[in-house]
Fold each of these.
Amino acid sequence: MDLSVDPNLHSLINSTTHKWIFVGGKGGVGKTTSSCSIAIQMALAQPTKQFLLISTDPAHNLSDAFGEKFGKDARKVTGMNNLSCMEIDPNAALKDMNDMAVSRANADGTNDDDPLGGLLQGGALAELTGSIPGIDEALSFMEVMKHIKRQENGESETFDTVIFDTAPTGHTLRFLQLPNTLSKLLEKFGELTGKLGPMLNMMGAGNVDIASKLNELKSNVESIKQQFTDPDLTTFVCVCISEFLSLYETERLIQELISYDMDVNSIIVNQLLFAEDDQEHNCKRCQARWKMQKKYLDQIDELYEDFHLVKMPLCAGEIRGLNNLTKFSQFLNKEYDPAADGKIIYELEEKE
Amino acid sequence: MSACNWVIATSLVFVTINKFLQYSTSYHASWMSKIIQHSVHKKSYDDYHKKLQERLELQEENTTISAQDNYAKWTKNNRKLEKLNEEIKALGIQLKSQQSSIEKQMKKFKLVTLTAPFIILKLWKGKFPVYYLPHSDMFPKIIGGVMSQGWLYLALLPLQILRGSSKVETQGEESMAIQVSVSLGIWLWALMTVISTVEFLINQLVFTKEVKKPVVIEEEKINIKAPNAIEEDKIALD
């Protein structure tokens, strides 16, 4: 019986069960290119389904990768009718929250002389909360909760699969820890409100039933926690380059994800030179670097033998725009063959 | 005479054991670990030490190999180390709880076999006359009363004065000779006080290091002169 794992993401690209796909790794290894490639390949393989690519990285790159502007609301990629993109903007989201608080204060009849109202008018809430560590991750998490709720309510513009182009490792791990942290926090809050709930409701909480709001939030968080740890629904694709520090961080990421009970079984190794098959442009430097990359590739093969190890080539130009991304992304579905596919890496269009 | 012998002998045994336990306090932890090593928890103890040894070997191996050149080996070792650390932590907690349960059992054992019987003996045979003073008028009446009755006599003295019946317990009234006894309680108290004093003296004379008299070195006066210091608070006038 052959237990070897395919060196491509064919099974993931054609998966009909996955709802959440995270793509992450060290900074500068090609996370955005890889997540765009996965999203494009999935959208092409399953044309009847809707896909959403969300960037949770505060330094967004999706707009640059596709060569068109995306915002905080999902917008379809030009040329694809089943792939949308959005970039979560923490500042805009916080501004919205601030505006909501202002309008609520105005609706309650608070006048402009009210010091709190005045503070909110100046966007103080947004400024204050914007400086809280981990707020980007929290907002991304809120976005996830919003989507789950929309899907549950059967509202328009629902997506079958959401692909996350995540921030570098540290941020992503914080993001993925949020369901657990929130769950524990809400449990404590639940205990408190059980004792002090009626009193809290009496003390200026107005018509808002704190206990029921908390219970609702708790059930949402639990639902996300459950979905994130279900290997049929959620998976994590690690992206790295064949260098020590990148591999070291990937290993750390994988171990952490395993400790969160998250499914992780795919690694994309980017920027490989395949110098020996490149007879036309085979410089000494490429040879030396390829030798170093091969050394680490052997180690990766030994360490992650039960993973889908996808070896992607370093292209001659920047992989920007839908056409270039589509050309490049085919090697996720069917592994790159340096001898046969070598010329494709020189065929990428130059984007202005 | 035989009754006298066993009461005093038992008291002396208790005192000796108590003192022995007091002097050997610093060794109790190592005795405890030896007990655990040879107790029913021997397996987890051996396992803990085996894992510690294994961790040390892995750490040594990881320091000798290059992470860059042997990345797979190095990472596998790190995975093993992480797993071992968790196992060691869990075993450590388990052993600690086992040790505290053994300590609790030992404390209970000491209470049942030593502390409680000694207290019972002191309460039961507290007024037991260890010996009699040669003359009844050797000490004032009150001291004689404390000696034969114990410290309780002093506490009850005001009551006895009020009742007008302050008298010293005497033994052997048939002989008509009033004898003052030294009770077991007082005798034990005196014995313990003597032992403590002897302990203190030996400790001070033998075990405490002599503190040498400090030698006073005369401080040299250092005069630091700033380059542009004003030597005298006077302004020279032409």
Note: Chain A has a mean pLDDT of 83.
Amino acid sequence: MGSWLRKNLYFALLWRILVGVLPAVAAAMLLPARWMAVVAGLLIALWTAASARRLVTRILEQIEPAASSVADLERQLPEAPVRQLEPLMRALLSSRRQVEQQLEASAETRRKLEALLDSMQDAVTSVDRAGRIVWANVSMQRLVAQLSGSVRPGYSLVQTIRSPQVLECVKEALEHRSYVEVRPAPMPMGRTYAVSAAPMPEGGAVVVMQDITQVEQVERTQREFVANVSHELRTPLTSISGYVETLLEDGRAAPSLTPLVREFLEAIYKSARRMSRLTDDLLAMARVDSGEQKVRPQPVAVAAVLREVRSAVAGLTRERRGVLEMVEIPDLTVIADMDAIVQVFSNLIENAFNYGVSPGPAQTADAAGVDASFAGQAPQDARVVVSAQAEPGREEVRFCVQDFGPGIASEHLDRLFERFYRVDKTRSRESGGTGLGLAIAKHLVEAQRGRIWVESELGRGSRFCFTLPCPSQMPAE
Amino acid sequence: MIRIKFQQSLDELKERLLVMAGLVEQAIQRATEAYTSRDYSLCEQVRNSEPAINRMELEIDQLALDLLAMEHPLAVDLRFILAVIHINVDLERMGDQAAGIAMRVLDLGRQPKVDLPVDIPRLAQLASAMVRKSLQAFIEGDADLAQSVLMLDDQVDEINREAFHSLTTLIKGQPDSAPQALDTLIISRNLERIGDHATNIAEDVIFWVRGADVRHHVVSV
């Protein structure tokens, strides 16, 4: 900046000399008597110009270091060389104080943020848009040190963490500029983490890793416990049900059953069947949790699915003396695992028969017979409608199971698919529900890339719907 | 400009090798966890990771050969590329060893459970630590850290020898348990081989950094 000013001043002085002095020289040529005076004037003009140039240069040389040291807080600002420059120096000093304050505020914010992040139990690191580590908190440094490594700022993330799940999570967040979560992400030394990566506005991403080793361990133990207990319970239950059923159905085995004994046996049979259903559901849930139940979706016709469903729930419909209607069956194909989808329908239809009808008077064993007795309050004319139709605007088919019962209050709708959640505990016990049917249905639908939800209105009934993708949505292998 | 591009290519080579190393480390971890927890779904995951490891081996080899052919590297750069080519092979073999462990664990699952006098988790822990340390030495170009990996190999060999002795004795005394003992013996051998490959990686790092060939306990500069 200084040299540019200096150069322009030289040009200004030269221009003045040419404009002011050359006409005087020309006049002197015409008038020789005044020639000496002209030369003297010329010399004075040159001396004045040189003095002025020296003065301006000196001032500029004084300003230059002052201007350049405004942002350099380590250096003192020099004194003003001439009185006229004092306002300029004051302005520079004021700018410098503002810069100092802003830098201090920025450093303070950074210190607070770092202290906050360092106090977190979760390991946090940030990467730039090229995936290089910018910063890592103390937990991250500790985690990497446990793995015989060290955090390497300025280098690619893979030089610090090699877990394929973590790298994939960060790569996806950087490429798609979206929040990505991976759980569980196994790490060396038997640790398990939940990893999330969130994109930052100016590019790059923040990665948070939460140690969930203990949580996973507890969940695994719970799942194993439930699976083992259910398995152990099933064997004696089968014997109990079998013997009681024989006693009740075959008069030859117990020809002289008194009404009281028959009543007690029916009570035993009813409870055993209920426990059997509960253990079946618990085992199904355990299979789903452990990944043992594999879902293998493939193209199947909607009509074929519904035919299979009708056949699978025929016994249940008869048992509940219900009416199962199937309407709007489109000529479409969906991507579904037939076994899984039949299980989803069975759970939804059983749910509709259990809760989707107004409770009627309890039936006596004599009236309902053995098969119907465990249904508890089996109502008259329980009607369930199953429908299927193409979802408008989406390449999906929507299946619905509708009942015409009392409906469900809106406060329950969000929690209906949770395990063991019951709207009416007393009624659930009476109807023999386990509280797992809808949770299993939700898991199976989502495993087939579908969605499940419920619509209900008090006094008008409920509609459980789920979607399944059409073949054009099938992911390429 | 050409030099910067070459340096970027070397960085890319290193990063790709580390991505592959991550897959291999996870395969080893899953295979050994499958042994301890008898979680057979982990065995399937180990086998599923093999194609990705093999594909990465080919890609890294191609990139390394391209750099050799086009850039004519010298001195430390040449040694780095040669080390990467060797480490690439070692990592792929480690992946094969992990798949071997997974297969043996599946086989063990088909047989009655027998208590065997072998500390496989300890062996797996040591072998994994060797892999981690040798890779860290590669990341940091730390020849001293690489040297420490060579010491650990003796411990792994010792545990493997003990396992061999205990299991052969058991087979003589309890022939009914021979299938389980043989499976466990092979797992022990797989882990010992993983330790050997980690040692090879450490030796490659020493060669890259110091220019010294320390294979077969012979030092030549």
Note: The CA atoms of residues 297 and 336 of chain A lie 4 Å apart.
Amino acid sequence: MKVTIQKWNTVATWRWDIPEEDVCGICQVHFDGTCPTCKYPGDDCQLLSGKCGHNFHMHCIMEWIKQESSRGQCPMCRQPFEWADQNNESAGQIE
Amino acid sequence: MSTAARRRLMRDFKRMQTDPPAGVSASPVPDNVMTWNAVIIGPADTPFEDGTFRLVMQFEEQYPNKPPQVKFISQMFHPNVYATGELCLDILQNRWSPTYDVAAVLTSIQRFEPPPADTRSTASFAYKPYLSLLNDPNTGSPANVEASNLYKDNRKEYTKRVRETVEKSWED
């Protein structure tokens, strides 16, 4: 018997590589959802991991770091917030 | 209108309902999630014990990146509370963190210790206790000089004056 495939549909799911129950400490939304200003999770609304080990929606932590009162500190541990760059293992500091 | 601040406040409200912290209660006023009424029960083993102190919390659109304005409506006699009801509390000023929510703010006023920044896990950071508000007033730069002086020099009279506000809080 010869089968000819005429058409197929592929479906994929994804999730961030962090504990499932985690929420963004700033907006309190699960990381599989978006920050309050975005509509679609994923590339449009990325997560940012600090060297201190704390994760946030990128838009949420950027908004906090912009505040003078943040003094550039992680909202969780108050260490200077530096993000861990996964590509070249170097790290940058948000100004 | 749904804004980031309003969505966050709805989450705060949900948390107050599903996981209510002991000794405090709060809810938004009808039709405006940016203004909340709250009640703090005076903690046991303090002169404030059993008081039902009312507060108003006013949020801005920059919440949670900016702290709410928190004000006692009930009359308070406390070294760190101004005659206007405003509090001198560092987590509401220069020690604010956007991870704090309504429950964390009220609990820290009631228990008078700073909230853990990560309100879901206490393992994140060891804060040094800097201000135990109702329990252990900071008389360094008092908001109420009379209360501060009595607290230092005449604890019996201080307690008496506080107990008067406790009784008054039941009438409000």
Note: Helices of chain A lie at 58-66.
Amino acid sequence: MSSTLSENQAPETGTARVKRGMAEQLKGGVIMDVVTPEQAKIAEDAGAVAVMALERVPADIRKDGGVARMSDPDMIEGIIEAVSIPVMAKSRIGHFVEAQVLQSLGVDYIDESEVLTPADEVNHSDKWSFTTPFVCGATNLGEALRRIAEGAAMIRSKGEAGTGNVVEAVRHLRQIKNEIARLRGFDNHELYAAAKELRAPYELVKEVAGLGRLPVVLFSAGGVATPADAALMRQLGAEGVFVGSGIFKSGDPAKRAAAIVKATTFYDDPKIIADASRNLGEAMVGINCDTLPETERYANRGW
Amino acid sequence: MSDLVIGVLALQGDVREHLVALAAAGAVARPVRRPEELAGVDGLVLPGGESTTISKLAVLFGLMEPLRARVRTGLPVYGTCAGMILLADKLLDPRSGQETVGGIDMIVRRNAFGRQNESFEAAVDVGGVGGGPVHGVFIRAPWVESVGAGAEVIAEHDGHIVAVRQGNALATAFHPELTGDHRVHGLFADMARGYRTAGSL
């Protein structure tokens, strides 16, 4: 990323810098799942920095069962038309043709997502071969670095989407944070063994040890249902928050969306979080993650 | 003389990168989220981010009016991308109800260079910044449709205006904070130093 440009050189698109830089612009913000143009407008009016266009929110994907796939292009285009903020959309893990389709539709970010049914149980998509940047989920540092090695320009936790339960996202962020802190104390000899243990490229491991953070933006995703949930994730080190079912499965989506935006910006100010939490109506019901059978845990998808 | 203090509006966006760039340019950089935090700064950066989100939060948390008041009385301000949009006196295509801080007599078109797939890097010559072209990182970037008599165009790309200065206000459609080249932040720090010196005379 240290290349210099000469004046006569043609402008370059799809570089690592513009892909990662795009995510930098989303920091401190909330990205909301929406299934219709109307919901997308509600999200934008509430102060969302981006929307994730999908056919069903994760809570409904859980309920309906079956194979979950990329959304209908018409539906995605309808949402792109409706708002001026960036629009993201999900492809199945390893389904690089869905990703090609999403790129051709002009989405601003592709989420190679465990919420959809994986198309490949060994390989993720080669994300370097796309102009559109990718965000990928990770439960730990090794997984995050493998995704970055494949070209992911942004990482998010893999909290159990559609449960309204933040416990798994907390686990992932703490895990990533602790593993980075551990690397900080390693000398050069130890970093080689750490790379082997993390099953990640040595260069990336060394970079993280030097930076004390991932080389790309880290967001929280999965299970955020309240303003306090969002602020918790930020205090644990997430640079922003994805909210899926938590908004449009609640009693008053517009109000809850605006409240989560406020709490994400003022995540360290309990008074503002308290004010944002008042009279929001019903939160989504939620599922206890320890009663979820292993086969229904999305975090196990991805390798 | 005491330290030069430059704030970064920290409601949303690439705040950390600006804090790093300002520190490299010799300023004490601090985030600004509340009206009272605005009082102690000699200059303010409006970072990249989502302009609709930042403007909404600024109104909601009582920052918009104090911001306008300080910019009106000459506080040096520098906006990148979304920050450029916020410094525009007029937007060509505002979202309904989208407010700006204003300060530069220009009309800005949001996302003018296109969506993320069209985001690009290119070398840009910037007036007032010596040492060769700046590495311009344009992300869903705006451009300036036109400027009024008081505003000076200091950079263009592909026939479009991408950097403007008017008095103590500076705006670029691109993101020097993402490059590690801190010359534009250096120019802004000089503007803030000049303002502080003039104020103390």
Note: Chain B touches chain A through 46 residues (CB under 8 Å).
